[in-house]
Specification:
The chain is of the alpha+beta class and 463 residues long. The strands form three sheets. It has a six-stranded antiparallel beta sheet with strand order 4-5-6-3-7-8. A two-stranded antiparallel ribbon has the order 1-2. A hairpin with a 2-residue loop joins β1 and β2. The protein is elongated, with a radius of gyration of 27 Å.
Length: 463
């Protein structure tokens, strides 16, 4: 008998006894004491030697041995025994097949998965540098769990149902260790999204609807999928009828199927531009290094503000001043001169922000927003009284500032020179009417005509 069939038969024999142990008594130690467990271990060692499957082994007292916790718990065998004990219709032969695959399949590659609160069409698959934005079908998700045969037999666990069709940014991390439990995303801590800003930024610049990260966790396909229902924000399903049912809660960022090609083209182009800027981190000259730092800091400020913004107009009173500072610092970081010569900061930034736009109306709007934001920022920093505003007025102004910050970051990326040149002098010249069409107008019109975001900018005439 070959190694794989022997392993399959050993698992079936063990399940026959382990499934007879009352569920309340099924501790891992008790299950390891059941007849044929030693046969399972021996068959697994023969079918999956350590030189081919080191992830199944651990060192005990200086010697390598199969990790029994991995074989029993992480594989799903313990859960299969529990379900048999409570009378669930467990397909034991399929369970044995899944266990064989668990032991003999390719070593898993650890991946970081980010669950986004947006809605994307079925079949979404967009490359964002090293990342992939993807919506998974139920069958695709099923292939990521270690024991597909048990799916649907555990009524208290339904993560796959909740996330079928949900958008994930995933990134392979070869050599990284799978961690448990997954990290529940903390919206007060900017660190989780900060690690992935280069993939998130193109999505956020494509549309002005808010896009946030709901959960960050680790997956090793076929070996570990530790997403729990509590990691997925839910709401009551209004179409469920009388029965209570929950579905994944989503935000306002929605991509119709018809817009998917445009989004893909936009993200691909923006990712190339972001990578080009960030390549300057290793450049021997100061300006490319400083430019990369500025983009990263501006993006991180925007992401941190996004995570603390409930919805398009929804901002907690306690967060208002902090969000205002995030947007102002983001603008100042990008619009300041890399050579350190900015003159009067407020007027200079007003002029440079307005120079990024092509019509008087949009230029005046940018200038007004920057002036008002800097005034509020200065009063806040120096402890001066801020003009009394209603909650509605404050939220509207903050929203307008957020949208301006998005536009400035996008246009900065489109226009920023390659090599060791600085964008600030070009903006200063454009504000004085010199070189506007060559350095500002033509590049912006070309980009927004060939690779437009979801909404055509107000200062760009229809093609």
């Amino acid at each position: 008998m070959s190694k794989v069939p022997f392993l399959h038969e050993a698992v079936l024999s063990w399940l026959e006894h382990a499934g007879g142990v009352p569920s309340k008594s099924q501790s891992p130690v008790m299950l390891m004491l059941q007849p044929h467990w030693e046969d399972v271990k021996a068959a697994a060692a023969a079918a999956a030697p350590r030189d081919e499957h080191p992830d199944l082994y651990t060192k005990v007292k200086g010697d390598w041995t199969l990790d029994q916790w991995t074989l029993l718990v992480e594989s799903g065998l313990a859960m299969a025994a529990h379900l048999i004990a409570i009378g669930a219709p467990v397909p034991v032969s399929e369970v044995a097949d899944d266990f064989v695959t668990f032991c003999t399949g390719p070593a898993p590659v650890s991946e970081q998965w980010l669950l986004l609160n947006g809605t994307f069409p079925q079949g979404t698959r967009i490359s964002l540098g090293q990342y992939t934005l993807q919506t998974f079908t139920a069958d695709e998700l099923l292939q990521t769990v270690p024991m597909p045969a048990l799916h649907g037999l555990q009524p208290w666990i339904q993560p796959l149902d909740l996330i079928t069709g949900a958008p994930f940014l995933h990134l392979p991390e070869p050599g990284s260790k799978v961690t448990r439990p997954p990290a529940r995303f903390d919206s007060t801590d900017p660190q989780p999204e900060a690690q992935h800003w280069q993939a998130l930024l193109p999505l956020m610049l494509w549309d002005d609807a808010l896009l946030r990260v709901d959960s960050v966790f680790t997956v090793a396909r076929g070996r570990c999928f530790d997403l729990n229902p509590t990691d997925v924000p839910t709401r009551e399903d209004q179409h469920a009828g009388d029965g209570e049912s929950e579905v994944r809660a989503t935000g306002d960022f929605r991509v119709p199927a018809a817009d998917l090609p445009a989004l893909t083209a936009f993200c691909t182009t923006l990712s190339v531009k972001i990578d080009a800027v960030m390549a300057g981190k290793t450049h021997s000259r100061r300006i490319p290094k400083e430019r990369a730092r500025c983009l990263e800091q501006a993006a991180l400020r925007l992401l941190a503000a996004y995570q603390r913004t409930c919805n398009d107009y929804g901002v907690r009173e306690v967060d208002y001043d902090g969000l205002l500072l995030d947007y102002v610092i983001s603008l100042e970081t990008l619009l300041s001169s890399l050579n350190g010569h900015s003159g009067g900061i407020t007027r200079t930034l007003q002029a440079r922000a307005s120079a990024l736009f092509l019509t008087p109306a949009e230029q005046n709007r940018a200038r007004t927003l920057v002036r008002a934001a800097y005034d509020a920022r200065s009063r806040y920093v120096h402890g001066s009284a801020i003009k009394k505003q209603t909650e509605s007025q404050k939220r509207e102004k903050l929203r307008s500032l957020r949208l301006l910050t998005q536009k400035v970051i996008l246009r900065w990326l489109i226009l920023t020179p390659s090599g060791t040149d600085d964008l600030a002098p070009l903006l200063d010249a454009a504000a004085q009417g010199t070189g506007r069409e060559e350095h500002i107008g033509l590049p912006l019109r070309t980009f927004f005509t060939t690779t437009p975001p979801r909404k055509r900018p107000a200062d760009i005439a229809p093609a």
